[in-house]
Automatic annotation (TrEMBL):
Residues 187-211 are annotated as: Disordered. Residues 8-138 form the Creatinase N-terminal domain. InterPro entries: Creatin/AminoP/Spt16_N (IPR029149), Creatinase/aminopeptidase-like (IPR036005), Creatinase_N (IPR000587), Pept_M24 (IPR000994), Peptidase_M24B (IPR050659). The keyword Protease applies. This is Aminopeptidase P family protein. Coiled coil: none annotated. Its EC number is 3.4.11.9. One of its GO terms (molecular function) is aminopeptidase activity. CDD domains: APP-like. SUPFAM superfamilies: Creatinase/aminopeptidase (SSF55920), Creatinase/prolidase N-terminal domain (SSF53092). The keyword Protease applies. Keywords: Aminopeptidase, Hydrolase, Protease. Gene3D superfamilies: Creatinase/methionine aminopeptidase superfamily (3.90.230.10), Creatinase/prolidase N-terminal domain (3.40.350.10).
Amino acid sequence: MSEVYAARRTRLRERCNAGGSAAALVSRPANVRYLAGAAPHGAVLLLGKTEDLLVCAGPPGDRSAEGRPDEALPVRSLPGPGGDPAVAAAGLAAAQGADSLAAEEHHLTVARHRAMRSVAPRLRLTDLGGAVEQLRVVKDEEEISCLRIGAEIADQALGELLESILVGRTERHLALELERRLVDHGADGPAFPTSVGTGPNSGRRGHRPTDRRVEEGDFLSVCLGATYRGYRCEIGRTFVIGTSPADWQIELYDLVFAAQRSGREALAPGAACRDVDRAARQALDSAGYGENLPTATGHGVGLEIDEDPQLTPAAMGKLDACVPVTVEPGVHLPGRGGVRIDDTLVVRPEADGGPELLTITTKELLAL
């Protein structure tokens, strides 16, 4: 993997040099991990004029969730507690003879930015912007493999839960059990706080589990994800508890299912992000649920659970091959509940079989 990380750093260096910066400071943890293989707490990456350094507040630990640093990348630990790796890196950049340093201003606080200026007053600080985030959008096959394994873990955890008795258990209990099962099957941990909604809470995006107990006839919506080697996937499903679904539940489920299928089928290299959103949104909007729809149909996933590209009505740009995204339309009816169906897929050309579905738990409306 050292060659992979080195190639990523080279691409970023070329962007910085083209923008007139001799060095770059990367501080956002996901970006540090992408370029260095690991992101120990508080660590920053310096792409220096003469040498690249991973600057840490202390010696890197062996926590697998933080990754393992690129063996070819020198690590510099601060000598004592209380130091700021970003400030130290600015001083190191100046010591290497750099006259400018591009930093991730969207991640640094004003106080840290001022401290960097004070330690290297002759160093011209510029904005690196979202350069690393842009590099992260298209994944290599090793990254996609991590996402695929994470999806398998999430599918397995969800499948086991569905085989257990659900009536009478609380949303909070079910969410905790799902997260335990993720770790049991090899995940670093959940990709985000697991959402379990029952009855009137079902179908709500980002619903935080409560002590409401599952009742017969409820919609049960679940949204969970696994983190594997730092990469995060997402899956969401909706079921009916204990009895045959009511007519309104079947009608709403079929509508959301059709919308989600349309969104999945719209994924292709060159497709406009807003067109994918429109494909999923159109059926729901036509049925009169426009005001109940979330702002986004989906988003990119990777080292973060919500990254570019965004699948929204106002999204700019087009999809590339090897970009993993979610397609997750849903409808929530206040006081009644709702449906959400969420998959993680990888954009692939038609010649390669079209979009690759990573989360494969059935989307049939099951009565559990």
